[in-house]
Amino acid sequence: MPGAAVPRFDTVTMDCPDPFSLARFYAELLEWPMPEPDGDDDYVAIDPPGGGTAITFQRAPGFEAPTWPHPAVQQQLHLDLAVDDIDAAHERAIALGARPLDTQEKFRVYADPVGHPFCLCSW
After folding, report:
1. Rounded to an integer, what distance in angstroms lies between the CA atom of residue 29 and that of residue 102?
2. 50 and 70 share a domain?
């Protein structure tokens, strides 16, 4: 067991213009529970149903979407999401509002509704 001074990976936080809307996109994509609004319009957290790393969304005034693959605004971070059926997962992501950016043999790159890149991976 790690010592008390060793950090544990807990959360990934994404800047965005509308935390509740982006949280809803990822909650639906991942089939995670979506919390009810609690009056805090600046921060929303979604947690995997079986425990594990949460994804949080925080309002960022002046948010600029990444322009990947163009380097004008770097992506800085992206999520790799494992899938069993990449074609079915592609259709589902598009239906939820993702925008395709690139297709490779084992993974596909998308932009979420506010422009963060993420990948669907069939390793």
Report:
1. 19
2. no
Parallel/antiparallel/unpaired status of strands 99-103 and 107-111: antiparallel
The residue ranking higher by pLDDT, 114 or 40, is: 114
Amino acid of residue 113: P
Q: What is the pTM of this model?
A: 0.87
- Do 75 and 51 share a structural domain? no
Per the structure, the complete domain to which residue 122 belongs is given by 64-123
Q: What digits encode the pLDDT tens for the residues 16-50?
A: 999 999 999 999 999 999 998 888 889 999 999 99
Q: Say how many C-beta atoms besides its own lie within 10 A of residue 92's C-beta.
A: 16
Percent of the chain surpassing pLDDT 70? 98
Q: What share of the chain is helix, strand, coil (3-state, %, to 5)?
A: 20, 30, 55
**pLDDT band for position 84 (cuts 50, 70, 90):** very high
Same domain, 10 and 54: yes
Separation CA 45–CA 12 (nearest Å): 10
56 plus 75 within the same structural domain: no
